[in-house]
Write a structure and sequence with these properties.
Blueprint lengths: L1 H6 L4 H12 L3 H17 L2 E4 L6 E11 L2 E11 H4 L3 H19 L3
C-alpha cells in the first residue's frame, strides 16, 4: 500500500516511467494500475488486502512536504482478521496522522 500511495502522487511522467518498467508493457495491468492510482489520489489513501503477505491488511496515506509533492507515506498494517471490523476507523486514523505530519513538514 505504501508504494502505491507514493506512486499515485509522483509527477505523472515519473510515475508512468516506473509503472512501465515494473510491468514491462503488460497493457492490461498498466491500465488497471493507472485506474487504481487515480482512485488512490481521489480518496487520499491506498489499501492492501493480502497483496504482499497473505492475511495481512494495510492502509497507507501519503505524507507531503509541499502541496502535491509526496515525501513518503505512513502505513498501518494488521492481521486482516483483526482489522476487518475496524477498517474505517484505521483508515481515518492513518489519513489523519499523515495530514498532521504533512502540516508539520510544511513548516520547514
Amino acid at each position: 500500500a505504501s508504494a502505491k500511495a507514493v506512486l499515485a502522487h509522483l509527477p505523472q511522467a515519473m510515475a508512468e516511467n516506473i509503472v512501465e518498467r515494473q510491468l514491462h508493457g503488460k497493457d492490461d495491468d498498466i491500465a488497471r494500475l493507472h485506474g487504481e492510482l487515480a482512485a488512490i489520489r481521489s480518496q487520499g489513501y491506498a489499501v492492501s488486502e493480502g497483496e504482499v503477505d497473505w492475511g495481512v491488511w494495510g492502509v497507507s496515506a501519503p505524507v507531503f512536504y509541499k502541496p502535491g509533492q509526496a515525501a513518503g507515506a505512513i502505513t498501518l498494517m494488521a492481521p486482516a482478521i483483526r482489522a476487518e471490523e475496524r477498517q474505517r476507523e484505521l483508515i481515518a486514523a492513518t489519513v489523519q496522522a499523515a495530514a498532521t505530519i504533512s502540516e508539520r513538514l510544511a513548516l520547514f
